[in-house]
Amino acid sequence: MGKPLRRRLKPEARKLEIVEAAERLLQAGGARVRVEDVVREAGVAKGTFFLYFPTLDDLLATIRTRIVSEFDTVNPLPTEVDGPVDWPELVESQALAFIEFTLSRRGIGEAVFHSDFAERRPLADHAIHRLTAVIRAGQEAEAFGPVDPEPTARLLYASIHEAADAVAAGVERMAMQAALQSLLRRTLSP
What we know:
By secondary structure, the protein is mostly helical. It has ten helices and no strands. It has a domain of 129 residues: Tetracycline Repressor, domain 2 (Orthogonal Bundle), CATH 1.10.357.
């Protein structure tokens, strides 16, 4: 008896199958995942992998784009058009959402943000641009003080990221979150 027939999928479905297989492996094993592991997990030939992703870095870039987009979709930024925005609360809730999101995708995050791949293909400062935009909007609404938005966003992002790393390393979560919320309020208060 021969191999079971492989079901035919449209190209986008096959590509997604490879991406999802890689995400499962990355979540479990971090940056140690190889192309061979992905093709085995996805049940595809190596040639099929390379048809969609010329290199492993191309696959990792696709995954990174997916998770950044997922965060933005799950945690949309409101506008004043939607009604009054509590800007300090928004910054705090976005920071806590980032911590939760980071912790839930620890292995993937290690592979796409903190590995050799991330050094070879740095990500534009998406999170910093997002936080800068929130600070500017909060300043326009007179909810934040006169800080320089971009450098402040960089420093706050570093604090938020460190909070996520500390919680992942075992630091008591509620204490870390409370300290982070206090830092955010003090930094941005009018």
